[in-house]
Amino acid sequence: MVSSPSLPDPAEWFPLTGAQEGIWNAQRLNPSSPYYVVGEVVEIGPGDVDVDRLARAVGEAVAETETLRLRVREHEGRAQQCVVSPTGYRPRAVDLRAAPDPFALAAAVVDEQRADMARHCAPMAERELFRYVILRLSEQHVWLVQLYHHLVIDGYSAARLSRRIAALYRAGLTGEPAPATGYRPLRELVEEDLKYRGSQQRKADERYWVDAMTPLPPVGGREGGAERSGGRTVHLRQTLTPQDSHRLKELGSAAGCTWVDVLLGAYAGYVHRLTGQQDVVVALPMMVRTTPATLKTPAMAVNVLPLRVAVSGADTAASLARKVSDAMVGMREHQRFRGEDLPGALGVPGAGGLLHGVGANVKVFNPALDFRGVPGLLRNVAGGPPEDMGLTVTPVSTDNGTEIHLGFETDPTRVSRDRATARVRGFVTLLRRLVAPGAPRLGAISALDDAEEAAIARRRSAAPAAGAENGHFTPVDLTEAIERIALTSPDEPVLVDARTSLTGTELVRRVRVLARLLAEAGVTVEEVVVLDLPRGHEMVVGMLATLLAGGAFQALDRAHPAERRRATTDDGGADVVVTDADGDPSLRPGAQRILWERIDWEAPAADIAVTVGPENLAYLLHTSGTTGRPKGVEVTRAALGHLIAHHRALLFPPSQRHSGASHLHVAHTASFTFDAALDQLSWLFGGHTVHVYDAALTGDALAFLGALSEDGIDVLDSTPSLAGVLVEFGLLQLPAPATLILGGETLPASLWQTSWRPGNSPGTSTGPPSPRSTPRRPGCLGGPPRSAAPWPG
Questions:
Q1: Torsion of CA 148, 151, 154, 160, to 10 degrees
Q2: What is the pTM of this model?
Q3: Beta bridge partners of 41
Q4: Cα–Cα distance measured from residue 540 to residue 523, given in angstroms and rounded to the nearest whole number
Q5: Tens of pLDDT along 522-576?
Q6: Which of 9, 232, 331, 535 sits in a 20 to 30 Å window from 663, CA-based?
């Protein structure tokens, strides 16, 4: 490898382009990231390859390409660049023919070169930012490894350089001169960029993107791949046949679009199916080759911008394609505005997430190359940070027509290989069904292939496990049930949220401390206590403490409108409010307040002397109010005690058998203002661990699945709408949960069929019994779900 020559006179340094500054800043912010090295392998063969001539062709290409002779420095706080003179570069050639498996060894060499190149390039300043290595695998096969720092090359430029090397190789063998490059000096590109950045056009472009992204689409869980990556990438491939590509072109033509619009529209539809989001944003690289100089000259110019598509289940392939086509008109016209400038323009720092997480890169240049009759194929081996859903699309001409190679690249520390495999398979299945004749609607299509649907049909026909159908359960005494938590799991975590983990002993002690304070505040039998607390361990401690004091809790959800919270608490008539510094002071202004931050948790936790019976009130909740004013519902201690007794007998044991563990981890996702929250909390009374997740996490399917996996969740009690999103996103590919409980909404037959597994006792639930509503257990095995007999007890 040739070392850098002496750097030129200071007068020859010039600034970076906006595209280069984006890469410079990103690498400086994350200097250990290997993902700013990009590159390809040109697989040449079978055929006779003149390795010496190939090496000279590479050297000639380096000599005539200014971007490969760039040197960068930091001067007075700003990055600058210059072009050094040619130095007779010649790539290293390695002969692997004697190896037992040359192809496997070559793949290992490529990985090693990528890693070494990333370490070499990380500082970026005053060094070569490219590398070529020639690997001879056999008499008939040669690989040309091409690696670049993204500061000097993008995908378009890499493909253009590969074609130039092939042209120089052919010219060297024939003795004829290679065609002129048409390259322009890099200074010209920099001057064009500087002129644009100070122009009215840039201001117009900024206005366009601010308007296009207002209101801001959801950005949760879309952090940058480079910042979160574990340093490895899973590469998966699927191929669309020439028949598939013909259908895409045919449908695109009929819709007045291109096949790319059809494919991207289908991908937006697939993202909608996975995430449940109707406002779908796909990060899309744009070439930004808008002038003759940028079109002809290898350099870093690519720009990632957000493609925003409104998607619903009523969409067809044609309607989605037209939406993409319409959006692409504005994207192309305003593609010079840098994506990394978007958060500043919007005034929202987190808006940068729109350029990560879900992306699609359409590589419309042909990867096939000609080395004077010997075929070459360009294969990407380093394409930037992997995203959770990063799709690459490459059309390849064959003798039978155009194939479309689909690549899916993810970080296995965030998305397992199995889940990524399911995603790319699901996308291909959905795509083929969406573009089928008859214009099927997106919402009517399954993303499961025939084998998966057959497996589900077999599961559905399996005999259900036997279980208790009848019997009466004596309600548990709630005071004894609370005290028993400390006896059952004294040293194991039983209540976990994002801020705190409490063992059984710690939880019960806190409950006793707060119960004493409630008693001192005058709370006794059936006195209502408002709990204006965060969603987490605070709310659970407040609920249990109120029950221990003999009172009835009224839990609030701070995400609900203030008017609803005021109306429902006025209806409840509470004289005591447990709250914290973020509580609403307008709630029950005359009531006594117990401030969470002022509680001394080390204070004596004396027993509470109170006589309370099963007929007394346990908690107060209100209906949604969709038909008018929210109506209060009083739930007795007997009803809650029945629920716990039932679950101890009929729900906890089979769930333990399914998971193969006596101690279970249970996800809590329901709002504490709904009785489903008590279903999920009831596992505490079996000595199990309840993980309380906040709404921001459960609303982000990717992040929530990660949390379920990381926390080892055995039981997930969910609404069908949330479960449907999670199942589409790969829930059933996780090793856990072993038990899935669905309720609270109408259960679609398709979700039931997808989720049912052999050995499960699938069920629906509506929550604990109340005076005016009777929960029911399922009677649906192998068919559409339906309610049957009342719950025992």
A1: -60
A2: 0.61
A3: 145, 379
A4: 18
A5: 999 989 999 999 999 999 999 999 999 999 999 999 989 888 999 999 989 999 9
A6: 535
